[in-house]
Amino acid sequence: MSKVQSLLTVALIATACGTPTQGGPTPQGPKPSDSLQVSDIPEKLTIIQRTSSQITSLAGKYRIKIGDITGQEVLTQILSHKGKTVVGLRAMRVGDSYDFVSGNKWLTLGLARLHNRLIGQDYAVFLVGSPQGVAQGQIQSILEQISRSKATFVRNGDEIDGAKMAEQFRRGISRSGDKIRTARDFILIVASNRTPGSRSLFVQFGDKQITIAEWLGSTP
Question: Alpha-carbon distance 12 to 56, whole Å?
Answer without folding.
Answer: 15
